[in-house]
Amino acid sequence: MKRNILNPLVILSFLLALSGCKQKGPQGLIMTVNGPVSASATGIWLPHEHILVDFIKADSLPPDPYDRKDVVKKMLPYLREVKKLGCRTIAECTPEYIGRDPLLLKELADSTGLNILTNTGIYAAHHNLGIPKGGTSRTAEEFAVKWISEFRKGIKNTGIKPGFIKIAVDPDSLTIFERRIVRAAAITHLSTGLTIASHSPSAIPVFQELDIIRSEGVLAEAFIWVHACQEKDVTKLAEAARRGAWISLDKVNDENINEIVKTVRYMKSQGLLHKVLLSHDAGWYDPAKPDGGEIRGYSTIFKKLIPALKEAGISNYDIKLMTETNPARAFSIGIRQDFSVNKII
Asked: Which end of the chain has the least Cβ crowding within 10 Å, N or C?
């Protein structure tokens, strides 16, 4: 498959990378549902949240599973609350076939003033729950062509472009199909500069994923280990971070504050806080439940985790690093190519 760099956003980021320019603050551009914004203007992030998720099997999804107005009415108070608490940017991580709705996200972004990102990619976790009929026979190149097209032309007929690549694998060793999905994400990154966020509930698939993207010429800096906090061996988190991967502690809730604080302190002791992201994996409106079901809000980090981190000796600088600087760097559009691998983009 021919791989071209045509988008001017990617050209700009690629030239910056080639220049060897290294800055302490975030740089580059973030693609939101309302278009590109400067990474330096994105403020506090929640880099892994959901507005709506429909876990019905991909091929069973009805044409109109919900009324968008109902979702907006239900979710607006939670988004307005978190904006009042200081959040400015949210990465909405629901992939295609399990509820991705760019127009819903744009309406919510317009109503709140939040920067909201949507994604391209596909969900192969839970035994290919988010894969439509015939999807497992598609090649990595076929997936990549579609994902690249969504970035260049917009998702379907919305004109809305994805801000990152979302994939999902199961916690065991990667299947042949999952390897294909990871390779497709690497190909897409090299043509778009979009970061790969991979739902990976354990370290087992993560290091295989890092090896696969490297074999395609992609640096680990282009990879976010989603749900890293589900891996109980924190030394694995440090190992992945040292390779360059972003470590997403994105299951923050009222019950695990002490555990998250302990992990943050460990990563600080290893000199690796510059690779840590914090989020809730919260929400979300479920069309299968009456009135969308029970919503878990996005405020625990602000109301409980940050005070607990400060009490544990984590400085304001470190908190800003994890909640502002790191996610802005992680999601900035830019090709992270490993030039030691002989790949032509």
From this structure: N
